[in-house]
Structures are given as structure tokens and as C-alpha cells.
Give the backbone structure.
Amino acid sequence: MILSIGDLVLDITIVPDGALWPDDDRQATIRVGGGGQAANFCAWTAWLGEPVRLVTRLGNDDRGRTLVAEMETLGVDVCPVWGSEPTGAIAVLVGPDGQRSMATDRGASVALHHNDLRESWFRDVKLIHVPAYSLFVEPLAAATKAAIELVRLGGGMLAIDLSSVAGLQAYGPARMAYDLARLKPELLFATAAEADTLGVPLDFVAQVPIIKLGSEGCMVFGRLIPAPPVAEVDPTGAGDAFAASFCTSWLSGATPVEAAQRAVFVAADAVTRTGARPS
């Protein structure tokens, strides 16, 4: 069993058919569906056939209940904590060059408390996946660290994704490097920009550092693993698909290079779809 802890929110993905102009209109493809890095990771993990569980906090509202039902339909075992705040939402704007801009309201998710956790959720977990978003703010950060400790007590492994340059800068790169040194993740995922922002070599703070390079593939222990060329539609969720594939392969006994070789193909498939999840 793989587990992730963090956001399950509503994604509103907007793909205009050209550049946007102030005070004007533009045709666009707009998709509304589930999102959040932890949830997207779980959706791709389930699609790959691995048992997976999501621990998350949502608003006790129609949006939250619908998002949980969608995840369960995908085969994810959801452990929801219901809060009084509204369920969060993310607006994702995809530019003509495939670059994304995101506006985020994380809503109820950031108020997950360590007292909300149940030990039974973590007993059979072989690997916990943690988006750095789940470490940036309290009380969610304390709950996430408690979840990591429960998984470690059961002999499970830890994978962390650095998630966001802006998030790292706001949290403090040195502070995050200190956290990583204490948490000792087996796997650490980062984009090149996130790795640069952290300011310390990734192999100082993780057993296996993986740098995601988008359409170029990824870097593992200094070795470039190229991605296959595809017609890119929307890169949203591709990094989560990559991490899901890497983690499932790693748990199955693949070497880091073998896991990366499989992961770049799953991520390449992800960018040919609109939205953050398999369809």
C-alpha cells in the first residue's frame, strides 16, 4: 500500500486558444475536475494498479463529497476528515507554450490536525508520498510529520516532492533543507528550479534524488533519462504521474534508473491529456 497526505481540491483548468488580452475575450477549453498534488498522485498510482490511500481534509460540502466519490471511483481508498471550511480550489491557466500559472485556495485541507489521524490508516503502508505543500503550513505540517513517523514505525519508506518554487521561497529554503535532513527521505523529487531554490545538493538530503526536466525527461544520479516525444496538450499532473510511476516501480524492486525509464513514459502520456489525472 502507498499513501499520500495532502490536498484534494477542485481543479479548474483553462486552456485558451491563444494569448489572453486585458479587457477582452478569448475562446478556451475549460475543464473542471478533481485536483491537488496528493490526490493526483493517488489517482495515477491507482491507474497503475497499485493499492493507494489518500489522507485529506475537506469541507463538509457538496464539492468535497463529490471529490471523494470521484477518487473512490478511480480506486483510491480515501480517508477524509471533514471540516467547517469550504473545500479548496485551484485555477490552472495553461499558456500557448504549455506553461502553467496557478491560483490556489487550499481551503479546508491546510487545517488537518495530527489528532485527526488514525493509526489504522498507516499500518499497512510501504511508502508515504508527501508533497512539500503538506509541510509548508501548520497544522497540516505537524499532521504530516506525525503520519511519516507512523509509517516509519511500520518499516515504510518516504518520498517527498518539493512541489513549488514559490512555496519553498515562502517557507525558507534553509528551513526545508533542515527538515529534509531530519526526515531522511529515500526518494526526493524536484524540478530543476526547485532544486536550485533549495540551495543544497539533493543527494545530501535524500537517498535517491530525482530531478524532473519536463519534456527533456529526468536526471537520476547525474544520468539523463530522456522522455519520448509527444504532442503536448496540458502538462498539469505530469509530475504527479511521473512520481506515481517511479514510486510503484521502486516498490516493485526496480533500480532508480529503471524506475525513471518507466516514469518518463507515464509522464509523457499524461501531457497528451487535458487535466491532472488519467481518464
